[in-house]
Amino acid sequence: MKSYLELLQDVMQNGEGHADRTGVGTRSVFGRQWRHDMREGFPLLTTKRIPLRWVFEELRWFLSGSTDVKPLQEAGVDIWDEWATPEQCAKFGRNAGDLGHVYGGLWRDFLGLTRSPNDAHFNADVGNDQIDGLLKEIAANPNSRRLIVTGWHPVEQRKVALPPCHTLWQVKIHEDKGMSLHLYARSIDIFLGLPFNIASYALLLTMLAEVTGHTTRDLIISFGDLHLYNNHVGQATEQLTREPHQLPTVCLGARPTEGSTLSQLLAIKWEHVRLADYKSHPKIAAPVAV
């Protein structure tokens, strides 16, 4: 994906030195945009290997409404463990594993009326369950310019170790039944975070289009602070020497189609995802800044 490498090169060349909460320090740019036409292939990075199953399991965890890391850990995914330690959670008076009102909770229960991750009876009043509201609005009013899901809560963001980095996304339905998705991200780590974010929202777009009877069009990401951690410079330099391979394809195979559109979306599991022709360079390890 040359567009990603061009963005990485931009940050390497034009990023300003910037102190950050982790103490590691970054090279940072502000106000960039990346876009991809999904008809040209699925945007899964090929210059290092990205574990799509992990990406999917995290997305499915978001959509479930859970804010506890246990379901992720049971799926063999540890990417949230650093923020779920007893020490991190104790800062906010929560037990280990309880991340507070982040992504899934905000998407499915914005007002915090239902805090149990095992309670499937979310309250959809006044858009509280934003995913349910989005799907219903797509069906009822596809021309709407209000097909928006927000992950930014001005009060709750002070009560969690890591408030949502990808903060708001909007869906657009085109006249030809195509569907596009535009994400605004307040802060993105370009080396470790962005490849996951690109794949995650490409999967989300694919799943939303599938259950609502649309085709995928454009995936766009607008960035606030886009940065490269100082201890990732060597890894980024190595990645820039690698030639991208052809993009793979991703589609959904046979899946449950009974029930509401929401229930169909939540019923999609990894076994329904079909990844084909994915060829990549090896993984490049890098430390996570917490």
Which helices and strands appear, and what pairs or packs with what?
Blueprint: H1 2-14, E1 16-18, E2 26-30, E3 33-37, H2 52-64, H3 70-74, H4 86-90, H5 103-108, H6 130-140, E4 148-150, E5 166-173, E6 178-189, H7 193-212, E7 215-229, H8 233-239, E8 249-252, H9 261-266, E9 273-276
Task: Write up this protein.
- This protein has 290 residues and is α+β, with helices and mostly antiparallel strands.
- The chain has a single domain (2-113, 122-276), classed as Thymidylate Synthase, Chain A (2-Layer Sandwich), CATH 3.30.572.10.
- Helices cover 30% and strands 20% of the residues.
- It is built from nine helices and nine strands.
- It has helices at residues 2-14, 52-64, 70-74, 86-90, 103-108, 130-140, 193-212, 233-239, 261-266, and strands at 16-18, 26-30, 33-37, 148-150, 166-173, 178-189, 215-229, 249-252, 273-276.
- Strands 1, 2, 3, 4, 5, 6 and 7 form a seven-stranded mixed sheet that branches.
- Strand 6 (178-189), helix 7 (193-212) and strand 7 form a beta-alpha-beta unit.
- It starts with a helix and ends in a 14-residue tail after the last strand.
First-last Cα distance: 28 Å
Query: How many independent structural domains?
Result: 1
Count, helices: 9
Estimate the global geometry from the Cα principal axes.
globular
- Determine the strand fraction and express it as a percent band: 15-25%
Helix content estimate: 25-40%
Average pLDDT rating: 93
